[in-house]
Amino acid sequence: MDILLYVAASYLAFTILVFVRNWFEFRSLRKVTSFNPESKKAPLVSVCIPARNEEAVIEQCVTSALKQDYPNFEVLALNDNSTDNTTHILDKLSGIINNLHHLSGKPKPEDWLGKPWACHQLSEQANGEFLIFIDADVWLDEDAISKAVSALQSSDAITVWPKQHVVTFWEKLVIPMIYYGLYSLLPAKYVEQNPKWLPWKLRNKLGPHFAAACGQFIAFNRKAYDAIGGHTSVKQEIVEDVELSKAIKRHGLKITMFDGVGTVHCRMYRSHKELFEGLRKNFFAGFGQNTPLFLFMAAMQFIVYVLPFLILFTGNYDQQLFAGTLIALILLQRWMMDLKFGWNPLLSLLQPFTILWYEVLGIRCLWDHYTGRKANWKGREV
Questions:
Q1: 248 pLDDT more than 80
Q2: Cα distance between residue 115 and residue 103, in whole Å
Q3: CB 250, CB 208: distance < 8 Å
Q4: Which of 72, 141, 232, 307 could share a disulfide with 42, CB 3.0–4.6 Å?
Q5: CA distances (Å), 180 to each of 150, 196, 280, 337, in order?
């Protein structure tokens, strides 16, 4: 038991180091100065929104994208063969708003996944010098495009992690852990530039592995997007956002990550079923479908975030003191995240149950992988 506690402490020390670095180095889109059209001609921006069965959210997404203070932009919404009222809503909006282009998606080819195919079609119709892809469950503050254009003056691509709005118990329990993992495992600086501690011969080869992106908001200079092959280069990738980020880095281009607090908002899922099925489709893929790595991380998450809570009630005095110290450090990290993103800090006390929920999800993902079962999302197999 003592050995496992030392393993937990070592792993936690690493996550704290990464967390502290990210706390100071993770850029905030809110702090970016809005683009000044008086100092330079405002380039055309195309906001591209793929939408499949999004009747609950598409109107809020589109109207927020249209209410921007940036002077030169177009909004393209592609109805990806929806079977609900998405078509009707987009027809209504495009009939009264001039710079909204409602596109009808073509049937998906067999060798494409749904989202890359929809984004590819949007890119073909977009006229902008800058392309901003946002999901239909995202909504924007009025200065979001202006700030994105400013950020793109010094970067070939940017990606924004939105402020996640969580409403139901399961959303509050599960969603914050995604951001906690991001902040405690991957230094944001290495997404933007390759680690200097890598030998220079390995830097370009291994650098793209330090890639991350959030497909809920990802934007490109058009030249950079075309240089990497656009969404054609990721047409069969479930986590196409991360693969686009890797492609940017492989081509010697620059991508910068931002948090979207105060600028970009999202509510990913609205029920436990949506939450489980939505993460089921990409959880294992996010690890590159690498089973040893997946199992290692599952074991570490249990040892670090569940075991100390168990020892707190079952161990001897010294073990309880050690476990209590680890728990205090974990909760401090979580509370800092809760403060930053406006989440309820009391739910952090349930982190062991959050980890167990992800362990169950992981078992289901492995079962899917080795039995050939497909997750179903928006009426399509993924």
A1: yes
A2: 15
A3: yes
A4: 72
A5: 28, 25, 19, 7
Model confidence at 201: pLDDT above 80: no
Question: 293: how many CB neighbours lie within 10 A of its CB?
Answer: 11
Alpha helices in 26-84 (DSSP H): 58-66
For residue 288, give the nearest of 229, 246, 225, 227 by alpha carbon. Answer: 246
What is the reported pTM? Answer: 0.94
In what helix (H) or strand (E) does residue 51 lie, and over which residues does it extend? strand 45-51
Q: What CA–CA distance (Å, rounded) separates 60 from 66? A: 10
CB distance 100 to 66 below 8 Å: yes
Burial, 354: exposed, middle or buried (Cβ in 10 Å; 0-12, 13-18, 19+)?
buried
pLDDT score, position 109: 95
Return the closest-CA partner of residue 226 out of 253, 205, 193: 253
- Map tokens 């996010």 to a residue: 286
The residues, any chain, with a CB within 8 Å of residue 52's CB and separated by 6 or more, are: 79, 80, 81, 82, 86, 105, 114, 118, 378, 379, 380
State the pairing for strand pair 130-134/217-221: antiparallel
- Measured CA to CA, the distance from residue 158 to residue 147 in angstroms comes to 11
C-alpha to C-alpha distance for 187 and 19, rounded to whole angstroms: 8
Cα 203 to Cα 196: distance, rounded to the nearest angstrom: 8
CA distance 365 to 350: 23
Query: For residues 120 and 232, is the Cβ–Cβ distance under 8 A?
Result: yes
Strand partners, 254: none
Query: What pLDDT sits at residue 357?
Result: 98
CA triple 354-359-362, angle to 5 deg:
125
Six-digit token string for 45 = 């921006």
pLDDT tens readout for residues 282-305 = 999 999 899 999 999 999 999 999
DSSP 262: T
Residue 195 reports pLDDT greater than 90: no
- Give pLDDT tens digits for 60-108: 999 999 999 999 999 999 999 999 999 999 999 988 887 899 999 999 9
User: What is the per-residue pLDDT for 82?
Assistant: 94
The answer to whether residues 341 and 179 touch, using CB atoms and an 8 Å cutoff, is: yes
> What count of Cα atoms within 13 Å lies in the side-chain half-sphere of residue 217?
31
- How many Å apart are CA 290 and CA 294, to the nearest integer? 6
